[in-house]
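Is this the right way to post structure tokens for a design question? Let me know if I should format differently. Anyway, here goes:
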């Protein structure tokens, strides 16, 4: 392991989180937190390692406060301190107003919002002890311009934007806290062959395509490394989707 800072990336094993893990590995030792897919987590760890970085992984449910504490203890014992936290886990269960159940509500709010709040509270306390830190929260344009079929997701992602401002105030000037709100990102689920609405979606995006995974990771890197005077903000990466 190199002697350098450490970054914890929740959901860092696949999709957008995997790309963030790989990008931040150029500067930090990485702890990838995933829930159950060991194969993807190991593949990402191996990829980072074979490209000269250091990464390790832990399986934990980041909606559970005890497990967030376990992850925090592991990161501190392994790396000495935590410099960067990326709250990336998220889940959408599209459903109409009539179909929403308390269970759907809780699952979506817990994964997107409760996890972000308690991870930032618990890991933020460690960062405050060390007198520095950066937190990046992955929100969504759904939290800015509502999607028709995702009320709890809209509420959760709007909550992430609001809590980004809250934590930026509470932790200033020691920890900077910012968010990214992607529109549509070209993840596996959004590839044309897997997504029946692909063409309709592209027509609504002024830049005429979805974001590449690397564009989201580059924005995380920018907010972490180059944006020393930016805190409490949400950077919208949506190809112009929310202009209209
Ligand atoms: N995809 C898009 O177009 C898009 C657009 C806007 C915003 N976003 C946001 O971007 C973020 C990443 O999205 P994605 O599509 O890349 O996600 P994804 O491919 O579904 O990956 C989710 C990751 O989170 C982990 N995870 C899920 N629940 C967890 C939990 N309770 N505890 C610990 N780890 C957990 C998963 O681990 P396992 O695989 O082990 O379960 C996996 O590593 C989300 O916040 C999403 O809302 C995505």
């Amino acid at each position: 392991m190199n002697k350098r800072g450490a970054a914890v990336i929740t959901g860092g094993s696949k999709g957008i989180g995997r790309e963030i893990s790989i990008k931040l590995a150029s500067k930090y030792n990485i702890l990838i937190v995933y829930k159950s897919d060991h194969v993807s987590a190991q593949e990402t760890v191996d990829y980072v390692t074979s490209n000269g970085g250091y990464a390790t992984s832990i399986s934990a449910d980041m909606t559970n406060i005890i497990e967030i504490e376990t992850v925090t203890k592991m990161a501190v014992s392994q790396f000495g301190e935590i410099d960067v936290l990326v709250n990336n886990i998220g889940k959408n269960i599209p459903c109409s107003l009539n179909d929403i159940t308390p269970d759907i509500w809780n699952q979506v709010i817990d994964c997107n919002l409760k996890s972000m709040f308690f991870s930032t509270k618990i890991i933020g306390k460690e960062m405050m002890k060390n007198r520095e830190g950066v937190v990046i929260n992955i929100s969504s344009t759904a939290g800015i311009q509502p999607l028709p079929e995702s009320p709890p997701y809209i509420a959760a992602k709007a909550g992430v934007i609001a809590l980004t401002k809250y934590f930026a105030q509470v932790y200033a000037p020691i920890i900077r806290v910012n968010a990214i709100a992607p529109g549509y990102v070209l993840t596996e689920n959004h590839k044309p062959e897997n997504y029946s609405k692909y063409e309709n979606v592209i027509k609504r995006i002024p830049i005429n395509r979805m974001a590449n995974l690397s564009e989201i990771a580059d924005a995380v890197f920018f907010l972490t490394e180059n944006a020393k005077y930016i805190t409490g903000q949400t950077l919208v990466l949506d190809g112009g989707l929310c202009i209209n």
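Format looks fine. Someone answered above. Worth noting: The mean pLDDT is 96. The longest helix spans residues 102-130.
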